[in-house]
Amino acid sequence: MTIRKIYLTAILALTTFSCQHNDSLEVNPDDIFKQTNIFPQPPNQWMGDSNPRYTAGYVGDVMPYYENGKFHLFFLHDAKTKPAGEGFHDIHSFETTNFKDFSYQGQLIPYGKPAEPDFGVGTGSMIKVGTTYYYYYTGHNGNPAFLAGNPRESVLLATSTDMKNWTKVKDFKITAPAGYFDFEFRDPHVLYNSEDGKYWMLVSAQTSDKKAVILKFTSTNPSTGNWVVENPIYTTTAAENYIMLECPDLFKMGNYWYLVFSENWSSNSGTHYRMATSPNGPWTTPANDRLDGSYFYAAKTVSDNTDRYLVGWTARKVPESNTGGKEWAGNLVAHQLVQNADGTLGTKAIPALQTVFGQTAPVTVDHTTGSVSQNGTNFSLSANSRVMFAKLQKANQISFTLNTSSSGNAGLILAQANDGSNGYKIAIEPGTNRIASYIISNGTEEIANAFSLSGISGNSYRITAYISNDVCVVYVNDRVAFSNRVYDVVNKKWSIFSTTESSFSNINIKNP
């Protein structure tokens, strides 16, 4: 496997990379990968050049773990090529110390055979007890022959002493207890609860009458293999009526406990959270109970004992174009969690991302539409005006302060055609107090993603967009993260726009 091969073509295409890089292309592709792959996905040919399998892959559900200065970001590997008869979603990992430089570790826990419970591997989590790491994960097998005598999903276990070499514990299996549906029983999350003096395992489950719950098991010592089922700590409400509460996570920050889960079936899909003063609830639903838009999914948290981070994936599209449909798995994306004074949570960019973008690019106007005035990197736009700028590179940081009125909307457009007939618009909409993205195709706009701006007062917005290949994450006022999949950004022009009177101050474009 060589990252050099993967990125050589992309580097050759960066004809606008910088005036200080000469035509001899004396650039190490591995260095470019490290600088610009801030939202990583597994590299091609991870099984070797001669193996036709898994020539490309994506990041599925992330299961983060921190130890001794390093984040171990285990994830479900979603292979682009799945040979007939083979399983899926084996566990791979990245390692990082800063969420900007990632080291790919390859496959760690393989999927099983067609007759085994982990023919498909699902989300889990890891805990260390003594010198042993216990990795609890989902076994999924929907093969008819297997289902004839087994539940579709179960909780399985693998152990290790170094986080590299894992042994599956063949005689360990937890299945849905009486009163619960054995078809939907997955995503174990394990933690030590010092307030209870026990290890907790949370499992996403359904009652026998198909009501979504987060079921709790407890153990005094995981090495015994003995987990006792207790009551659910959360049950979906009648108003929510969520089908499943996937990928649960539970942690304490300050005076509050937080329960994080994801659901992908409602009109408000994404990663949600609840808050309480006890790990058993009762749980309060914040006014804005999501932590990003609908393209950011299955996020779980990890702490380095100082800060806490939210790590998930941003969905790709099939076919891979802006008009394609949202598909499971994509690129790893991480935010830093922020706790507001009232206990609610926000998200901001991980500070290390700023150090990736050290080269300031000129703010070059291509053309304007409507009434526009410019003073250096400050622009004032009247209603229905637009400023188009020069082409973007492979990786970009765009920042500015937007001041606008509640009577319209304003923002930026990426992947834009010269005539504006195609592109991807990201708009601040004060009237509805949200940020939203729209696919522009042949002059017609279709909404792709939206997220509340509750908690941000006034009509002044500090915006920073981080773009790496086709992932774009927009941060607003260090409180809101908004992740999107945007194709055809590289070597395409971009714009700012407004449907009302707006000012864009201190526009700054940076590249690695």
Describe the structure.
- Helices cover 4% and strands 51% of the residues.
- It has 512 residues and is mainly beta.
- It folds into two domains: 37-352, Tachylectin-2, Chain A (5 Propeller); 359-511, Sandwich (Jelly Rolls).
- The strands form seven sheets. Strands 21, 23, 24, 26, 31, 32, 33 and 35 form an eight-stranded antiparallel sheet that branches. A seven-stranded antiparallel sheet has the order 22-25-34-27-28-29-30, with no helix packed on it. Strands 9, 10, 11, 12 and 13 form a five-stranded antiparallel sheet that branches.
- Strand 10 and strand 11 form a beta hairpin.
- Helix 1 packs across helix 2 (29-36).
- It starts with a helix and ends with a strand.
- 44% of the residues are buried.
- The model is unreliable at 1-33 (pLDDT under 50).
Number of structural domains: 2
**Fourth-tier CATH superfamily name of the largest domain:** Glycosyl hydrolase domain, family 43
Total beta strands: 35
Major sheet size, sense and barrel closure: 8 strands, antiparallel
Low-pLDDT parts are 1-33
Tell me the CATH architecture of the largest domain. 5 Propeller
Helix content: under 10%
Basic shape? globular
Through-space gap between termini:
25 Å
- The averaged pLDDT comes out at 91
Per CATH, the class of the largest domain reads: Mainly Beta
CATH topology description of the largest domain: Tachylectin-2, Chain A
Compute the CA-based radius of gyration.
Answer: 23 Å
Name the structural class: mainly beta
Tally of contiguous helical segments: 3
